[in-house]
Here is the input.
Amino acid sequence: MIGEFTNKITSRLTKGMSGATLRNGFVYDACVRARIRRPDIPVRAVEFYGQCGEDLIVQALLEARALRTGVSLEDQKYFEIGGNHPFATSSTFLLHRRLGMTGVIVEANPDLISDLEKGRPADTIVHGAVQTEPVETVKLSVSNQNELSSIDRDFVLQWNDGEVGEARWIDVPAVRINDLVSEHFDEHTLAYMSIDVEGLDLDLLHDFDFDLTRPWLVQAEPSEHHLPKNSERIIEHMQSVGYELIARTEVNLIFCDQRPAGRPESSLTF
Here is the structure.
């Protein structure tokens, strides 16, 4: 009975997608379950799109740096490798919505490009799989769940003991991470880079030229279920190039640059 009542309250509180203020259903659900009064002042829901709210963390860090340095975030860019859906689990959509930032989104699955172009018209959408070798094409394992597609075929085939499975194995254009940086960013405009390529994040971080440009923040997914202790390897590599772990969620690691121009290497950027 309580569960049914809670669902009705939560449903009422979260309606109004056309513009009405949404309320935090978790708070009101907790009140019902504990049989205590609801708060007098409505508790609003917080807008986010990242898997575990990473975009809220990144937004706060970027705004803090912008406030301290006087940099306009509308002039800064983001770089999202592994775009998938324009909004769901997006690392960057909130940054566009709230901060006016734009950037480059790379996606390997050709079936997802049209929605990305429709949903993110202010951004540059690149179709390709980011590779560490100078090749023209690469094989992509397209999962039955698009979020899990990868050029690491074993990652897809082994996910959830093989229950999800592979829809297709196709050739897609191969692109290099540093070529994309050289083409779309200058030395000072890349504020945030997010890598989510299902098991290959560390490979791309090894290939990235941090002498070419140094993002303020770098996010990577260690995929520990597939690569045990990969978090440790990613952290060690990022420390070797002057980045420190500043936040961790269930899914992702977020690093900040420790070597801002004109400051000692030991000086913390954020």
Remarks:
- Confidence is low (pLDDT under 50) at residues 1-18, 262-268.
- The longest helix spans residues 54-69.
- Residues 2-34 form one domain.
